Amino acid sequence: MHDIGYFLRCAAEDLGWDYQVLRGGWLHQLRKGDTKHYVIGYSFPHNSNTAARVAMDKVATYTVLSAAGIDAVQHFLVLAKGRSRREIRRLCHEQLRLAGLSASEVVLKPVTGSNGRDVERAASFRVAQKKLHLLLGRYDGVAAVSPYLNLRREVRVIALDGRPLLIFEKIRNADWRHNLAFRATPKLLSIHENERLITCALRACEVIGLRLAAVDLVESDDLSWRILEVNEGIKLGSGFVGQGAEYLRTAAAVYLAIVRALE
What we know:
- The chain is an alpha+beta fold.
- Helix content is 35%, strand content 28%.
- The protein has three domains: 4-40, no CATH class; 49-72 and 150-233, D-amino Acid Aminotransferase, Chain A, domain 1; 76-147, Dna Ligase, domain 1 (2-Layer Sandwich), CATH 3.30.1490.20.
């Protein structure tokens, strides 16, 4: 099974680290002499806590990037915790209007989260409000709203210490989301032939203060590119490595570089 534990174990063996799984496959320890690091889920210790928290928060990511003049998909915060039903209705209406529901569809999603989980589309206020209320109930009164964009392409750049480790396109299948968890297909791209996208991704990492990140960029119908989100966790799971030997070798090389950067 080629999960993150497999790649960490291989990297540890190559670099002389002691590797141990501490809990149920989600907590990993790397030790060399007096140096010790933990990997929790897909989160590595390279980033500061503040930078990682910005990246995990879709609204914070958009706010920081847009303030720096970087094109990013808008995300509006819906914070309903402690508010009355009337206030929540008003807040939902305001944020749905800001996200452009009057002109087109919107996307509703958790403020944090990954893999496209609980991300929904809505084309009417009634449907959007219903789905938004469900999200607020599920995520402790906090959700995000963004305009729906008819996307042509989505590309992910994995970057470490100001350089790209990997760039690949996520080609969607039947589902409207470009997530590998929803059966999108990864396609390896050339780092040298996509310098513009890589430069944008590296700039986003610099602005947020991330050493390590996976940056998703999207191309809309008008052929413009912008950043959709920035992930501080690095996951190259079965949807990626299952594409064949080249993808398996690529994932191994990425994780090897990540572990080497801990030295």
